[in-house]
Design goal:
The chain has 149 residues and is an alpha+beta fold. It is 26% helix and 35% strand. A 7-stranded mixed sheet has the order 1-2-3-4-5-7-6, with helices on both faces.
Amino acid sequence: MDLLWQDLHHRDLSVAQLYAILALRSRVFVVEQQCIYQDIDGADLARDNRHLLGMLDNNVLAYARILSPEDAQQPVRIGRVIIAAQARGLNLGYRLMERAIASCELHWPGVSISLSAQAHLQGFYRRLGFQPVGEIYLEDNIPHIGMQN
């Protein structure tokens, strides 16, 4: 599948792109995973945060949000990693994460990268160079673990 990849600062998102991102996140994280939580958390349009989109025919099929470090001692954070249901099984997760890591290295060179992984995906993130940090914890009733590269 040949996606159009875009790595955008939040100020460069179109209204249609932001709507598509929020709709995908709601469809998967809230409806599909049956997890009622406040997805729109104020970080989408803050600081130097970025949005990585993999699109096909104006549909967002792969997405990750990259949160800029809050200060010089903090890591850059990758989150809201998502593959649309119709695109799962096509190895887009690796392509998405490789692009997310490359974006972090480009925009914040030398800064460590962290993420909060669903615990059952530890192996996936380990293959990308991330290691667990701390213990498994519940986030919105889903087991998660902190990971860092």
